[in-house]
Amino acid sequence: MPASAQRVLAPGQSMSGEAASVQTHDVQAVLQDLSQADVVYLGETHDSLADHQAQLQIIQALHRQNPRMAIALEMFQRPYQSVLDRYLAGEISAAELRQQSEFDQRWGFSWAYYEPILEFAKDNGLPVIALNTPTEITRRVADKGLGGLLESDRQWIPPVSEIRTDNDAYRQMLQEVYTGAHHGHGNGGSFDNFFLAQVLWDETMAEAIAEFAAANRDYQVVVLAGQGHVIYGYGIPDRVVRRLAGTQFSQRSLLLHPSEDLVDESVNSAVAIADYFWFLE
Questions:
Q1: Half-sphere exposure for 70 (CA within 13 Å, toward CB)
Q2: pTM higher than 0.85 for the full model?
Q3: Which of 39, 47, 230, 257 could covalently link to 43 via disulfide, CB atoms 3.0 to 4.6 Å apart?
Q4: CA 114, CA 43: separation in Å to the nearest integer?
C-alpha cells in the first residue's frame, strides 16, 4: 500500500490544511497500531466504491502482519452463516453465495463492492462472520417493539435482557436521523420502536463479534459496517466491550472517507468519533 496515496487524521483535527494543528499520520504507523487491536472497525458508506477498495487494502495489510484474521460483515444476516461457510469451503460459487444468502434482496448494495473481499477471505482460509439481524426481525421490532417478536426470531438475536437502550447520547443522535432524512421512509411505528430496532441491530452484531473474539483469542476480527454503527462507539464497539468486560481486549475504529462535516464535528466533541479517519488522496 503506497503511503503517499493515503492520508490519515486523528479525531480532533480539521481537514483544512490551514489549521496549524493538522497532522498527517504515517500510514504504516497507523496500520501497525491497528494490527495490535483485537477488533478493528472499518466504518463505511455502503455505496462508496472507494471505501470498499480501502477496506480490501487495509485487510490485506493487516493480514500480512497477522494471518490469523476473521472478517465480520454487516452485509450478511445471521441465518446465512452456513451459506458463507459453504462458499469459503469451496462447495458453492460466489454466484451461488449471492443467490442463496439473498444478498440482493437483504442488502441491496452492489455485490461487486464486496466480492473481492470475500474472494480474499476464501483464498486465505479466513473465517467470515455473518453479523446482521434478519430483515424480518428488525421490521417487526420497528413496527411493534419487542412484543412483535416471534418465538422463532429469538435464535438470531441476543436475549432481551442484553438489549440496552440506556445510552441517551445515542438516542439523541438517532432522534435526529429519524426526524431528518429517514423520517417517513418505511421505519414504521414510533421513534421508540425505531430506536429499539436500531439497538437490536447493534446488539446482534456485537454479540456475534464478542462470541467469536472470546472463543478465538489469537484471531483479529476486522468488522465491516456502516459508519453509523461505529461512530462514537455507540452502536457496536461499546456493546462488544460490555460483553468482553474483564478480559484483556482492545479495539480500534477507522472511518473511511468521512464527510467534512463529520470530521469538523470531531474538533469540539468531548467523545472520540473514531480513532482514525482514512482518506484516499
A1: 25
A2: yes
A3: 230
A4: 14
